[in-house]
Amino acid sequence: MRDTLRFVLGDELIEIAACDPTLTVLDWLRLERRLTGSKEGCSEGDCGACTVVVGRLDSGRLRYEAINACIRFLPTLDGCQLLTVEHLKGPDGSLHPVQQAMVDCHGSQCGFCTPGIVMSLFALWLNEDAPSVARIEDALAGNLCRCTGYDPIIAAAQRMSAGGGDRPDREAVTARLRALADDDTLALSGPRGRFLAPATVAGLADLVTAHPQATLVAGATDVGLWVTKGMRRLDPVISLGRIAALREIADRGDHLVFGAMATHAEVRPVLASLSPQLDELMRRFGGEQIRNAGTIGGNIANGSPIGDLPPALIALGARLVLRRGGEQRQIPLENFFLDYRKQDRREGEFVEAVIVPKPGPEALIHVSKISKRFDEDISAVCGAFLLRLDAAGRIAEARLAYGGMAGTPKRAAAAEAALTGRHWDEAAVNAAIAALASDFTPLSDMRASAVYRLTVAGNLLLRFLIETTQAGVETRVAGPLAEAAHG
Question: What pTM, to 2 d.p., does this model score?
């Protein structure tokens, strides 16, 4: 085991021998290093004022990503490079092209959110030469600004590509990070507990067996809030972030296999190849910082009834690979969720992978996320549906899955039965809508009333019918299905 955390801050090698397991990157930057450009706004990964850029090795290649420093635990940066707004200035103190574009386009007023916006744009500048307006909007969806308005910021993003500037020496940074990589388990201790980070799946299995009550951390996009909002003390913490094998995505011909640590950003293009509906769902999955950190396995293992991925994966017939020690078992994803925040996961067991069957071109697929705010918001209702028709045009298979309608993501069995064997038409949809009342008794809460949820659940089936039977009728105001709306 290795007892020292190692990462690169700008160009400086950082080595820390003792560290609390849930010390956030933001607190370390501001309180320990006095790098106060990164701001604390919401402390829940929502406003983007804390945005920093992390460089990590992905299959041996350097990948730069914007992430939320306020909910990212410092020890998870082991083997990475961390860049803050302070690292953008030139040797002579000159502004970076991203910063200069913000000045030229008047993209800042009070300035509180500006460093985070600059870092989101910096990540975009690093990775893409001439992003479209739609892409810029996606990259900025995780950054909130209350006084400037977004048009000047978008204008700055368009101008920054022409501003020149030196990119980081990727070869040199890659070499430094490779030198830090090893297969040792990182084991840190601090006054508030222990942090363990294995580098192999076998090492993870051993640790979870030895510490079955430990908190497993993937992207920390939810667990981070347990600390910053719930003030919970987590000890020990077992991080999955150093296990390259858990990030693998494989095409097995008739199905896809996603390692539990594949991030939403990595998962999105692969799911998009199955259906543009899935691409739209993933585009609205939090802000870009959340998609860069959150994982497919974490979204499932968290067990939230309003997680957006489970309904879509259930509709596709996904299976879950669970591991305990050297043993694996597979279960249908829909069977994993037993009750509110209760899953079919045995002591010492963890999510290893997700198997997603390819639906085939004949399948009709629909996914809708309904939320108060279009971008970066939690669903009130999420509906995901898959139909297969027989040669006579009758429904041979119906899989209707919802999130936000019950204590778990759940299939609508009665509505499925009402559809099966019928022609795909308005009469069949009306029968399925009527059956939804026996499938769900939704709750009323701050996001929606029970009546609203049940009504929307039925309307999503009607939207599905319209989209698949009436050519040229647009039911959505944004997203890939209305690309022309972006101009």
Answer: 0.93
